[in-house]
Design brief:
By secondary structure, this protein is of the alpha/beta class. Helices cover 33% and strands 26% of the residues. The chain is built from 14 helices and 21 strands. An eight-stranded mixed β-sheet has the order 14-13-10-15-18-19-20-21, with helices on both faces. It has a five-stranded parallel β-sheet with strand order 2-1-5-6-7, sandwiched between helices. The model has no long low-confidence stretch (mean pLDDT 95). The chain binds ligand PMT. Ligand PMT binds next to helix 10, helix 12 and strand 18.
Amino acid sequence: MLKNKTIILGVCGGIAAYKAVELLRLLTRSGADVHVIMTRSAQQFIAPLTFQTLSSHPVHTALFNLIEEDEIGHISLADRADLFIIVPATANIIGKIAGGIADDMLTTTVMATKAPVLIAPAMNVNMYRNRLYQENEEKLRRFGYHFVAPVSGRLACGWEGEGKLAAPEAVFEAAVGAVTPQDLAGRVILVTAGPTREEIDPVRYISNHSSGKMGYALARAARRRGARVLLISGPTALPIPEGVEVINVISATEMLTAVMAHVDECDAVIKAAAVADYRPVTRCETKIKKQGDVISLEMTKNPDILALLGSRQRRPFLAGFAAETDNLAGNAEQKLKAKNLDMIIANDVSQEDAGFNVDTNRVLLFFKEGAGEQCELMSKAQLADVILDALGARLPTR
Ligand code: PMT
């Protein structure tokens, strides 16, 4: 993701400066080499030592003490950057950059860099709505600068409204997006994830061990690659990936309704959800009482969502999963044909490090045209990109 990327983190003077510390932790944790520049006002809010300790590099605060190793500091730093992030960005710094002013270490380095620049503004709501500010932001957007919009809420100045710095996680996602090729931009991808629950009575249900990890990894990766992502999720304990639109469902029937409501908007559907094949014929309105030693439950077949999609005349690219405990390749290829899919991802769920409720997976990919690919054990995050590479290469051009 951000492994071995050189990132400059510019911190300006605002009460939200402390949130730049959390962002720095997220960036370094994901393997980035982060160099921090602080403006003079930023140092009124937080000490450089905090950033120095967490980035393992000295913090740059002044323009004129940076002639290092025969190099001009702000130029060499600007040249080395893969990404420049400014958090929090004040109206002042945005105005200066938009006006071409370079009078301190931060503005000079921004001016000198060829790396993508990501700006996360934070300010009073009236400053944010001021036409001067809005025009500066618009100008920078036109020039290719990326922005993470501030959110609404109670501001440090006491006002209520837009201007609150976006969450560090949202800025982190935008940072990943800014250095990720946007090969799925303009595409709409629907991902289903997690288990379904089929209720027996008000306190009991039938379900499976799906955690949603595989589907959420796909949704996150597709969003990072620029797609609009609709995530239809059964019950999971996972946080919603940034920028992904989520629709929560419980049962297979609810999942079917949600999928059918959105399928016509989509370029591709990826069905990572573990949908229950059967549900109880009737759901008891009251808790079933303990009776004899054995009870039986009558079950009826759930609709096969993927097969229904495959039978449509006009349909998006369809990628299914096959969760198997035996005859992995044979069963998967049979499902690919029977459900009229473009692609199937077969995982052997009897293995401890693959399939349900683990962070890794090991799969076979099969395609409609007859090709196949074996993917050795990798993280679900890595596998999501492998699946999206294969899917992206097969989406019809528009
Ligand atoms: O969520 P995790 O813990 O990360 O686990 C990931 C996973 C094991 C759930 C995932 O990798 C996976 O294999 N998902 C599909 C599980 C499954 O239901 O497989 P299946 O072979 O029973 O179904 C084949 C395909 O048909 C699947 O894409 C499924 O979503 C779809 N299906 C199945 C039944 C049904 N009624 N409707 C469907 O659409």
